[in-house]
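We modelled the chain as a single entity of 481 amino acids. Its sequence is:
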Amino acid sequence: MARFAIWFAILLVAASISLSFAAVVEHSFNVNGPAYATQCPIKPGQSYTYRFNITGQEGTLWWHAHVGWLRATVYGEWWNANVIDVENEGLSVGAAPDISDAYTINGKPGNLYNCSSNDMYKLKVEQGRTYLLRIINAALNNQLFFKIANHNMTVVAIDAAYTNPYDTDYIVIAPGQTTDVLFKADQSLRSYYMAAHPYITTPPTVGFDNTTTRGVIEYKGATSDSAPVMPTLPDFFDTPRAHQFYTNLTGLADGPQWVPVPLQVDENMFVTFGLNIERCPVNATCQGPLQGRFSASMNNESFVLPNKTSMLEAFFGNQREGVYTTNFPDAPPLEFNYTSPLISLDESLIYAPKSTKVKKLRFNSTVEMVLQNTAFLTVENHPIHVHGFNFHVLAQGFGNYDAVNDRQKFNLVNPQIRNTIAVPVGGWAVIRFQANNPGVWLVHCHLDVHLPVGMSMAFEVENGPTPSLTLPPPPSDLPKC
């Protein structure tokens, strides 16, 4: 079976490259990159070598930047501008930043864009062979539908965890997620487009990049001069098909690296999240809603990263004071109709205080989180990413989570295992994981437009009982702030 990695942003990634990390180097301080969370950022002109183990995972993982919008430099989503300027301009006035100008497949936008007719990713295949595509969504701010004309795919892994084989003619994938699929070159000898465009959950009145990127699958030996066949992608707003895909995936129980669902829960959390408004500072000009600035929150706390040291270093040195506090709430301060559009009119709810709060966890404790979308300003499907852990997705649905009836829907036998969950628009998801990785780990929306304005929190996981389960000292070459 041939293997290809395809990064869309889709990073559909480059042919013959596996993104699974093969080399195992020394474990070092649990650093995984987020600036001011697990380390200070690497300064311009300097470098840093990460040393880490990959254990208990097989398939595709994606290593990417976590400083502002720098991960746009892997070319998943394209702006005809410097992306850092785009981000800073939006933040400076508190408005939504400019939308992108193109999506790409392996860094190439394809021939539906102006001036890019020769800038298209091409993949040659042999008739009758089966190929493994490692698909990564590297877009900053969009989930994406992806399809290959006249071909079906079989999903076999997501986020480096095996799934029960799932046959489909399309996939939907959120930023940061990975999806491994098999496709068989079983069609006639000619060329076929692979294509991707966004899955949108904000109202149609909110602008978005409504373009389509495409590449070509070319059969070896094809003699036809006819144009490649184009797939019919789901509509931009096709939530039913997106939800069908996301919920039909199940884990490969008892397969390689399978981890059963922990049944005893030690920590129960109910976490609301959504967009908010920050009041405009005195003598400033703000172009966000209600003459304020765009903000975001989890449990009514709008997260602010420290900037003088990293949270992980403060945790190691037991010097949290002035860096962060350990009083992130287990539930929002008020109960309300989380998905009602009327809450956008309630000023007591749409303003959230800025803070740097984390949730402290005992080592090896089992955490269950209800992730509840809210309708602050607008509803949206938010991909929530948990650093440092895989989690089981027990259930997901629309509306307000019902602690009695929705628990009956829990899959405790073969739920999908992920590190990023696209929480349904105007809905909820329940995840469960074991806190067996000491350190400080971010939890955040993987739409990068929402991360810098506060849609984040973090876990502080205590050390375990043995040296091998204890956070090691910082490496001598760890970047300094």
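As a brief sanity check on the tokenised model: Confidence is low (pLDDT under 50) at residues 9-31. The CA atoms of residues 126 and 352 lie 56 Å apart.
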